[in-house]
Amino acid sequence: MIRVACLGNSHAAAFKMGWDEMKISYPGVSIDFFAGAANTMKNLEVRDGRIFPTVPAVREMFVAYGRQESIGAGYDLYLLAGLGFGLVPLMSLYAKHRPPRFYSRDSGNHLISEEMLREARIHVFDKCAAIGTLGLVRSITSDAPVYMLPNPLPSADILSNPALAFWSNEELLSDCSAYLNEAVSRIQDAIYFPQPPATLEGTYLTKPAYAKEARLLKARWTRPTNDGDPYHMNAAYGFDVLSELFTSAGILPSKQADAQTA
Fold this sequence. Notes:
- This protein starts with a strand and ends with a helix.
- A five-stranded parallel β-sheet has the order 2-1-5-8-9, sandwiched between helices. It has a two-stranded antiparallel ribbon with strand order 3-4.
- β8, α6 (170-185) and β9 form a beta-alpha-beta unit.
- It contains eight helices and 13 strands.
- The chain is of the alpha/beta class.
- The longest helix is centred in the last third of the chain and has 16 residues, at 170-185.
């Protein structure tokens, strides 16, 4: 049995729902989900070689979906889902602010210095829950592969919202992509698994179908996201991303695995 631990925030819901639909094809794989809303996965610590939540809300989620209060080193594969890593948190800094190189007086945006932008990126991105969680996982196991799955790119429907139209600004997207690529190049003890091209509409947006009927994980149940939420994805997204990740990791569905060994 291949044991997988998926650690994530609200974006873990897509993978939990996708796994529920695809697990019948992977009888030799099990996935335990350990999640906390928003940035609550920053409230973790290592004790006696295991990762424990330090707040009740996260502990309740661990028990509800992972069936235990802590994460040990006995997994064959670790997935870090969302947790504030990827292009989305970087682009969020440009929602209402611009450094001088991107600023124009008639834009309605606030002018900030390059130094302020650098500090904001360190706070929002370099110190995100994904980076901290990776460090905790590596403190309990040095051998098992760790895959980092970024926050999904927003649905292409986001462009219909004037307040979010900055997602069509190629200069901002290229700038954030360069920062992300540099950050990924510094990661030495995990495998960055970018969003599969088949899920994308263009380069920087997700096909709208993947955002329909998206849900959030809650203790003992899932609930729909807010109507029009372009940032959370559904079971189909989780299914397709996990399928590609498993293929990359050499984990095949049962019929395909049987055919290759026949």
